[in-house]
Amino acid sequence: MISWLTEPFLHPFMQRGLIVAIIVGIVCSIIGCFVVIRSMAFLGDALAHAILPGIAIAYILGGNLFIGALIAAVVVALGIGFLSRQAKIKEDTAIGILFTAALAVGIAIMSTIRTFAVDLSHILFGNILGVNYTDIIFVSVLGILILLLLFIFYKEFMIISFDPVFAYTRKIKVNFFNNLLLVMLSLTIVISIQTVGVVLVAAMLVTPGATAYLISKRLKNMMFISALFGILSSLAGLYLSYYANIASGAAIVICATAIFLFVFLFSPNKGLLIRKLRNFSLRKIKNL
Q1: What pLDDT, on a 0 to 100 scale, did the predictor assign at position 275?
Q2: Domain 2-287 of CATH type 1.10.3470.10
């Protein structure tokens, strides 16, 4: 049993993958709580796909793909923030416009790259086992920055998420913090590319947070529980990837979804099956 647990991490590439997976699992899960409570799942998916033009341009210019992704994500996030502040355009409309525009530009540029399938496939589907020490430093620095900003401005983020009107009365700069949250979400997506890829990053932003939401409605507790689920999903996903010989990003998301379904069905107070069994027992008692 011990050898079964330790064998995968005897390999240096698995050790590096574990470090990045845990960092990404924590950061995605914590900021994902704001995605869940603000119903921003579509935004997370849109930003994940909106980075494609930046990646493609960086590839053509021979630059760093992650820097290209970061610039594209921030530009689109700020664009969404700007458009959604206009009285005649709702946020979901702004997301839809810029998301599809950025995706179209990305596809157009990528269609000119003959080696796209070989060189950029890890961006779409993740390649956590291919991370190097430079990637670890990059992910760690951005991850710490995101968590630090969340810690410093926790009160402001909480207020604008639950009661924007009250935030205005407290003279909180709602537009500024909304844009900051969008930028932080963009940074989270960029550091998640290596782990789960563009295709699956939205799942890691939503699923652990949604699972934690089934257990606790208090934001601090929810963030802590979500981080634990993110770590557990990442660790279990790496084991599944190693022993089942499947893509690590997909394995992590599968494990996160399995945890969500388990909590959804069996959590003591809110699990679907537990509620049905409790209601069935109460009806039986009343009929006695």
Answers
A1: 59
A2: yes
The token pair that represents 203 in the structure block: 């799942």
| Least confident range of 107-116, 137-146, 153-162, 192-201 | 107-116
Confidence band of 118 (pLDDT split at 50, 70, 90): very low
| Residue 134 CB coordination number (10 Å) | 10
The domain spans of the chain are 2-287
Please state the pTM of the whole predicted model.
0.84
